[in-house]
Amino acid sequence: MSPRLRHLTTLENLPRDTIERLLDRAEALRDACAHGTRKLSVLAGRTVLNLFFEPSTRTRTSFELAARRLGADVVNFDIGFSSTSKGEELFDTLHTLEAMHLDAIIVRHKQSGTPDELVGHAMSGVSVINAGDGNRAHPTQGLLDVLTIRQHRPDFENLIVVICGDIKHSRVARSDIHALTALGTKEIRVCGPSTLMPSAEEFPKVHYVENFDEAIRGADAVITLRLQKERMAAIDLPDEAAYFSHYGLDQRRLALAAKGCLVMHPGPINRGIEIASDVADGAQSRILEQVGNGVFVRMAVLNELLAR
Ligand code: NCD
User: Fold this and answer.
1) What spacing in Å lies between the alpha carbon of 174 and ligand 1's midpoint?
2) Residue 280 and residue 295 in one domain
3) Of the residues 59, 111, 144, 167, which should be mutated to test ligand 1's pocket, given the most ligand atoms within 8 Å of the CB?
4) Are both 151 and 266 inside the same structural domain?
């Protein structure tokens, strides 16, 4: 059995059994807390801090709910009112917060690599969880995405999964690819304009199919992504109407996929840009299941890192 994790900053190179253990635990905790209606006490007396330097709706709320459902105390560090806006160094902030005795820091930052820097500088036994760093990794999103797929299609070795959109700037795509690869997915396809693709060397086993009609043919799951304009150079910015006609997921394209293809999106969604409203709200959409699974996956990660 792979060793217990102390931090979670990326899914890259995590063994399959670690990922499966976290997914299994997410489902066990979901049942133990009766889908959130019963509070557990596994993490009673533990304190976790949400340290978000970038906006977040789903991730921050679901980490907070996850910690509370396990009986932990949660502190939300509001960057807008903190000393970081007065120019306090990140590591001074870390040491100040550590002096208050925290068990875990959940960090989101626009700079790739920040969570690992915090791991390197932490003085106490604090655990660091990456809630999204730049375009590099968003490990709990990767886990909740594969959990959502597994609940419908546990046979990863038979699955074709398509990730469509702005892969280059997407930490979600990177963590999804790492998790899907670890679970032995038959084929991973990425699709989108060539300006929004990562380098071919980054993911040598992933297939790049530029044409969405071709990419989606026979797919068992399709993950659509937002255009992450905040991380784009002006030159990369596609025209939104043209983008939808080439890369928007609509009913016509969904009909080219395998029967029952799962429709996914990490949110926030832009209706009419990367996905049509009737597909986002349609019978094949798993988008709200993803949100629900996010809480259970985050409970599993907190439990892995912090339970005594
Ligand atoms: C994503 C993120 O912030 O990386 N959202 C999320 O966590 N659910 C994806 C995005 O912002 O497009």
Assistant:
1) 12
2) no
3) 59
4) yes
Query: What's the pLDDT score for residue 150?
Result: 98
Shortest-distance atom of ligand 1 to CA 172: 4
Q: pTM for the full model?
A: 0.96
Indicate whether 73 and 149 sit together in one domain: no
Give yes or no for a contact between 285 and 279, defined as CB atoms under 8 angstroms apart: yes
Q: Which residues contact 25 (CB under 8 A, 6 or more apart)?
A: 300, 303, 304
Write phi, then psi, for 14 (nearest 5 degrees).
-75, 135
The Cα angle at residue 63 between residues 59 and 296, in degrees rounded to 5: 100
Cα–Cα–Cα angle for 162, 167, 173, rounded to 5 degrees: 65
Cross-strand bridge partners of residue 264: 223
* 195 touches 29 (CB < 8 A): no
Do residues 284 and 254 lie in contact, with contact meaning Cβ atoms separated by under 8 Å? yes
Any atom of ligand 1 within 6 Å of the Cβ of 267: yes
For residue 228, which atom of ligand 1 is closest to its CA? 12
Domain of 210? 139-290
Is the CB–ligand 1 distance for residue 128 below 6 Å?
Answer: no
**109-146 pLDDT, tens digit each:** 999 999 999 999 988 889 999 999 999 999 999 999 99
Distances, alpha carbon 134 to alpha carbons 202, 225, 231, in Å: 16, 15, 8
Please check whether residue 173 lies inside any domain of the structure: yes
Q: Is the pLDDT of residue 86 over 80?
A: no
Amino acid at site 290? Q
**Spatial separation of the C-alpha atoms in residues 297 and 235, rounded to whole Å:** 37
